[in-house]
User: Which sequence fits this backbone?
């Protein structure tokens, strides 16, 4: 049996932390790391996983001592936290594997910082290779897979590993990728220009798994552009609305979308019917020539 500690480094004051709002709501953090919860679902059945979210509480020496492998996921704003965690884990003789958006963008920098394994690409393809490398006793290196994940193969995230009372919202991802080419966004570099989707059945199963944790309230659909495919969005919104009504409407929803949502009253009505309360809209530019260039 292998013990794996999944570490989400502390977020500095940023779009993803909202410390003042957390003080008002009484929660410790905005959301758990969906990436790490998904990684946990990819680990072998005979491996034991624990979540350690530094936005909820510091990672203790006892946490690190328990682990055989420490897996850390980081965005760019978590870079310093990733390096600090890796140093502590290596000092205790642990295997350290790092992945996530920042690591995928700068793998050699992370390897040079002392991490044993650096994971580049989507976890559904890379985590099995990491597990194989650890089982075979390899000492490290960059594990990279360029192929995009078939979303039908994404496992149910291990929502059971966290305490929902610590968080303001629970995350759920229904798609990866975006058809647009906005300069401010690295989504197409990470996930491509062709959106890929989970089935409606997968999405409602994840809603049920979140409900099983005891969470009530907000669920954040973390899709980079929820309406990247408007036809698929309509189908999914109807399924979400049906599920929410059938379960007594335990959730209200937040997501991210491109500004062309404003041109579709039908989509807006479907989102309202499904109990969406907020949409974060990314606007590349008010210049129509720029908008045309980014499609």
Assistant:
């Amino acid at each position: 049996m292998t013990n794996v500690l999944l570490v989400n480094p502390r977020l500095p004051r940023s779009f993803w932390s909202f410390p003042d709002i957390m003080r008002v709501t009484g929660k410790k953090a905005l959301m758990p790391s969906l990436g790490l919860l998904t990684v946990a679902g990819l680990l072998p059945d005979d491996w034991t996983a624990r979540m350690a979210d530094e936005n909820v509480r510091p990672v203790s020496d006892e946490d690190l001592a328990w682990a055989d492998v420490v897996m850390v996921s980081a965005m760019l704003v978590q870079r310093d936290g990733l390096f600090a965690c890796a140093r502590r884990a290596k000092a205790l003789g642990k295997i350290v594997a790092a992945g996530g958006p920042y690591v995928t963008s700068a793998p050699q920098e992370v390897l040079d910082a002392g991490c044993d394994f650096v994971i580049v690409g989507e976890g559904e393809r890379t985590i099995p290779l990491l597990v194989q490398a650890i089982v075979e006793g390899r000492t490290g290196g960059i594990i990279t897979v360029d192929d995009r994940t078939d979303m039908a193969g994404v496992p149910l995230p291990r929502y059971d590993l966290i305490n929902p009372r610590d968080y303001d919202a629970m995350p759920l991802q229904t798609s990866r990728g975006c058809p647009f080419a906005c300069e401010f966004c690295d989504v197409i570099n990470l996930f491509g220009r062709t959106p890929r989707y989970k089935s409606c059945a997968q999405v409602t199963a994840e809603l049920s798994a979140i409900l099983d944790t005891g969470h009530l309230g907000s669920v954040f659909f973390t899709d980079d552009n929820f309406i990247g495919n408007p036809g698929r969005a309509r189908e999914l919104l109807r399924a979400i609305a049906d599920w929410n009504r059938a379960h007594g409407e335990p959730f209200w929803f937040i997501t991210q979308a491109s500004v062309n949502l404003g041109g579709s009253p039908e989509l807006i009505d479907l989102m309202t019917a499904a109990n969406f309360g907020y949409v974060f809209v990314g606007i590349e530019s008010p210049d129509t020539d720029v908008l045309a260039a980014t499609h």
